[in-house]
Amino acid sequence: MTGPLITTTVKVDTHLRCGAPVLTGHAEGLLARVDLTPLNQTGEIHALCAGLQTYTLTRLGLVHRNACRIAGTALRDVGPVLAQHRCHRRIPADHAATTAPTVAAVVDPDTCPY
User: Fold this and answer.
1) I want to staple 80 with a disulfide (CB 3.0 to 4.6 A). Which of 4, 8, 38, 86 is the partner?
2) Chain mean position to CA 62
3) What DSSP letter does each residue of 36-97 carry, written as one string?
4) What is the tens place of the pLDDT at every residue in 74-94?
5) Domain of life of the organism in this record (predicted)?
6) Which residues contact 77 (CB under 8 A, 6 or more apart)?
7) What is the CA radius of gyration of the chain?
8) Does 5 reside within a domain?
9) Does 51 map to a domain?
10) How far apart are CA 45 and CA 95, in angstroms?
11) Residue 15 maps to a domain
12) Predicted TM-score (pTM) of this structure
């Protein structure tokens, strides 16, 4: 049993009904099972319209996303947005978050960077 509003670290688990890999943990007192595919803004809107909860994955665990957290900037760039698991639900490719490749700055030793 967990205390009120407790957040636990997540663990990778297999959903008993469909066998899909999911992340499981408590997010502010709520038991959460989420899919592993991170969502972009369009994917989050479609998940919410389908009646699914969304969560942000942080170093400490899952954080439930409510209207204030979605509209605000507190959780922006903290971690990926993940949707509540629903068996046999496929996430379209255009709803999955893509990360831009990090381009390292090329330093030319012959020129001064200042």
Assistant:
1) 38
2) 8
3) SS-B-HHHHHHHHHTT--EEEE-SS-EEE--HHHHHSSTTTTTS-EEEBP-TTPPPPGGGB-
4) 667 788 999 999 999 888 888
5) Bacteria
6) none
7) 18
8) no
9) yes
10) 9
11) yes
12) 0.78
